[in-house]
Amino acid sequence: MEKVKMRKTEKTEWRFEYKGVYCEIVFWSVDGMKENLDIYKSGGIWNSYIFIRKDKLPKLFKRASLRLQTKPNPFDKGKPNPRKDSKFDYWKLDFEMASGITFYEKMYDVRGKVCCIKIGNDYNHIWNGGEDERLIKTHLIDTIDELLPTHIELIKKPTNLLTHSRITNRITIF
Fold this sequence. Notes:
Blueprint: E1 9-18, E2 21-30, E3 45-53, H1 58-64, E4 68-72, E5 84-88, E6 103-108, E7 114-122, H2 133-147, E8 162-164, E9 171-173
Antiparallel strand pairs: 1-2, 2-3, 3-7, 4-5, 6-7, 8-9
């Protein structure tokens, strides 16, 4: 049997809802991050996410919907069987988050239909340091306040929603 090396991961999550938008804050680290504070100032990495549900905020959902772009990998130019890169051009979104947007994922219901968009960022830049869950919560609230005044709509009270992430293969209930 092949020897497989594992690394311990520590992860803490905070969740809340504000103006009909679900929010998640995640702090995670792996072995070695806490010892490399010159690179990982917080001893790990902070991420934050907003979840825009189609059944709750349909206009905002439509505004945040992006198409998956597939382009040839530039490093494979001229090679036989070049790879293709697929990505969402999230810089085309007409809003911003603190520390930029570095994550975009469409989430699917049990029928395979897109029901939610997860948009997020990370705080692992050279200018970052000193963040905590309270500051990041403030950043998320500021983002939502900027999004929703220009996007007023009736917030529906849906039932619980079961979603599936194709990236993490994780099922979430909102």
